[in-house]
Amino acid sequence: MSPEVFDKSAVEKSLRAVVDPSTRKDVVTLGMVKHIAVFEGAIRIVLELSPHAASLQDQLRNTVDRAVRQAAAVAHAKIDTLEIEFSAPKVAAPTQPAAATAQDQASNPLPNVKKIIAVGAGKGGVGKSTVAVNVAVGLARMGYAVGLLDADIYGPSAPTMLGMDEVGTRAKGQMLLPFELHGIKAMTIGKLVDPDKALVWRGPMAHGAFKQLATQTEWGELDYLIIDLPPGTGDVALTMAQMLPVAGAVVVCTPQRVAQDDARRAVRMFQNLGVEVLGVVENMSFFTAPDGKEYDLFGRGGAEIMAQTMGLPFLGSIPIHIALRENSDGGQPLANWKNTTMGASLDALCQRIEAQVKLAAMAGRTDRPTLTISP
Ligand code: ADP
Questions:
Q1: Nearest alpha-carbon partner for 320 in 300, 291, 340, 348
Q2: Is 44 helix (H, G, I), strand (E, B) or coil?
Q3: Does residue 43 fall inside a structural domain?
Q4: Which residue has the higher pLDDT, 351 or 23?
Q5: How many domains does the chain have?
Q6: Is residue 343 within 8 Å of 320, Cβ to Cβ?
Q7: Does 131 have pLDDT greater than 80?
Q8: pLDDT at residue 204 is higher than 90
Q9: Domain range for residue 80?
């Protein structure tokens, strides 16, 4: 039998079976269900529980877990991860400005970061990290305070691309100090975990690693935080969307048809997560030979057409350039601006991203992504 759709409303329905014996009311009716997020096989539920009832947490978690899994089994739906978390009821809004700041911090873990931009791709090897690094450095060259969070748990590139292989992390109390190099602040999961082990991570581990990386790094005041996500669709993007007020996502794609299909999936993932897609970048668009002749190795313009058909802005194309690869491998991103043509195309890309972020903000679309929220 084919699986039924096990979406937010199906999860909510299953929670109606979880009844408080004293009031005989279910947790949905009691208003205890604060969030339900469903993405592919990953489910996250947040229940509100007063601190006085904290002793009931384990029991409630088990009951909810059982109810959701039973309903999923009936629907022949597969659950990869099921996270059940508890939040305390919000207290009345404080009147003192200082207290208000404390409350902002509780709902936005990075209140000193003005705009968060995610960089994603449908699959690995298309130049997602190259774009993330060069956009971070390019925005810094434009005068912004920029951070780069390399959250690609399956293949962190920042240590190589920023030349920080040899440098160790430093901490101040509970906080990690970001690396300050090439005019930006950077932190990478590559310095915290062994990527070979991270390959098998799912759900809670990826969630925990991302949370630690994002919130326990001493970013200071930033205009932009660029997040280099793992390729494909998965747990880290879900965690990011739930946790941070992301201004938008940039999707990197190479021109080939097969790459476009993967990029489309990445676009849909961001849209499902409620993250605005700022646009598409075509990387490895064409190759310029030493004699200046241009070769369309992969079918130049393919990603631009994909962006158009999906109604998304096209943010620009980056050619295949030997220096780009050499400077990435050598950990010298600023050297990309020594080549005037390449520097100009990277600057144009940064300016279009900057413009799209402003447009999204004007349209009031940079609120915290909401996913499928209940009730
Ligand atoms: P991803 O993050 O999508 O896995 P990377 O950014 O790590 O991809 O790029 C993969 C490899 O391709 C790297 O060695 C990088 O230097 C190289 N590369 C990426 N874009 C270009 C380009 N436009 N020209 C030349 N080399 C590139």
A1: 300
A2: strand
A3: yes
A4: 351
A5: 2
A6: no
A7: yes
A8: no
A9: 8-87
Longest dimension (CA), the chain: 81
Distance from the alpha carbon of residue 139 to the mean position of ligand 1, in angstroms: 19
Residue 156 sits in the same domain as residue 115: yes
**With pLDDT > 90 as the criterion, what percentage of the chain qualifies?**
47
- Indicate whether 132 and 224 sit together in one domain: yes
Residues 6 or more apart in contact with residue 13 via CB below 8 angstroms: 71
- Indicate if 258 and 145 belong to the same structural domain: yes
Residue nearest atom 13 of ligand 1, based on CA coordinates: 325
CATH number of the domain residue 290 falls in: 3.40.50.300
Q: Which atom of ligand 1 is nearest to the CA of 130?
A: 6
Residues 79, 141, single domain; the answer is: no
**Ligand 1 centroid to residue 183 C-alpha, Å:** 21
Global confidence as pTM: 0.72
Question: Which atom of ligand 1 lies at the shortest distance from residue 125's CA?
Answer: 4
Write down which residue in 39, 54, 87 finishes a domain: 87
Looking at this protein, which amino acid is placed at residue 29? T
Q: In the predicted model, is pLDDT for residue 1 greater than 70?
A: no
